[in-house]
Amino acid sequence: NRPPDGIHFIRQSDSFAFLLNYYFFDNSFWAPENFNLLSPEGKAASEFPLLYYLGAVLAKTGLNPRVILRVLHTSVFLIGSQLFFMRLYRTTSHFFISAALTLLTIGSTIIVYYSNNFLPDIAALGFTFTALYYFLKPDKQNSDFLWAFALFGLASLIKITYAIYPLAAAGSFLFSQKSTPGKFKKAGIIAATFIIIGSWWAYVHFYNEAVQNTYFFNRSIPIWKTNLVDIQRTSDLILNYWRNSYYPETTQWLIIASFLVVIFKLKKLSLESRNLLLFSSLGCIAYILLFYMKFADHDYYFMVLVPLIGILFANFTEIILHYK
Question: 4, 8, 119, 142: least buried by Cβ within 10 Å?
Fold first, then answer.
């Protein structure tokens, strides 16, 4: 029941303000507003406001808005984590290994902190985990593929940086499958997903431009446009301040060991698994290079990398348990 507080409380307040403006002023879903009056009436758009709008509707029933938004974000994350565990378990048939790797994947101080928070990043992470539940299914049908990309898309609508994973999944599929009639239907699902993602973020751009709002804009700060002093400062903060908040040191070593095993035994993975890991890794490298300076002061930027850790652990178990 606590209001936004702690680290990044201003950004938390902005997220909560979207919900409150829907709640108090009955705004149209497509006309989000904030309490930041840099634009007329606080009109501003950023992340896709599905959970804010749903939270406002639920608040109209008498529920506490602060509790609702926390519960919505936490529920999406917990459901995604549970489904990710189920996918590992159904793949490996080893309960303990699947549970341990799931807990290691989400066992970050940063994830624990933001899992019951107003920031939308944890919901984007939860939707991505749920999407992986469907996409990593060995014998996925068209319905599984549709669910996977619908959820990948929803995560990307909430936080555009999570588009790394539908892009990786699309590359994995398109470069792994022979040309069949079913492939074209799935390619249509992929195309529709990116049209919807692109349409929303284009709408955000034009909506903010129309109301002259520049407060919400996901600006990148590419590492190659940054001076050496700032790069060194950011690197020092990552390595000496944030690193053990990302993961405990034991988990860090396990990630490195898993990475080495996967690299040396890469040919033992299915082609689709190899491609998913490859494209996800390339996407995360690009993300780090584009937003490197943000890592100095924004711990939650790390969460975009967490699904890659989950994919790495899934590949690690595939190698260890299914091949001699």
Answer: 142
Residue type, 303: M
pLDDT band at 217 (very low <50, low <70, confident <90, very high): low
Q: How is residue 20 written in tokens?
A: 């409150």
Q: How many C-beta atoms lie closer than 10 Å to residue 226's C-beta? A: 14
Distance of CA 163 to the CA centre of its chain: 8
In terms of Cα–Cα distance, which of 151, 289, 276, 277 is closest to 220?
289
For the chain, give the secondary structure using H, E and C: CCCCCCCCHHHHHHHHHHHHHHHHHCCCCCCCECCCCCCHHHECCCCCCHHHHHHHHHHCCCCCHHHHHHHHHHHHHHHHHHHHHHHHHHHHCCHHHHHHHHHHHHCCHHHHHHCCCCCCHHHHHHHHHHHHHHHCCCCCCHHHHHHHHHHHHHHHHHCHHHHHHHHHHHHHHHCCCCCCHHHHHHHHHHHHHHHHHHHHHHHHHHHHHHCCCCCCCCCCCCHHHCCHHHHHHHHHHHHHHHHHHHCCHHHHHHHHHHHHHHHHCHHHCCHHHHHHHHHHHHHHHHHHHHHHHHHHCCHHHHHHHHHHHHHHHHHHHHHHHHCC
Please say whether the dihedral angle defined by the alpha carbons of residues 210, 214, 220 and 222, taken in this order, is positive or negative: positive
pLDDT at 323: 58
Distance CA 34, CA 23 (A): 12
Q: What is the CA radius of gyration of the chain?
A: 20
Global pTM value: 0.96
The amino acid at 36? N
Cα dihedral 222/227/233/239 (nearest 10):
50
Residue holding tokens 């608040």? Answer: 59
Tell me, what's the pLDDT at 180? 63
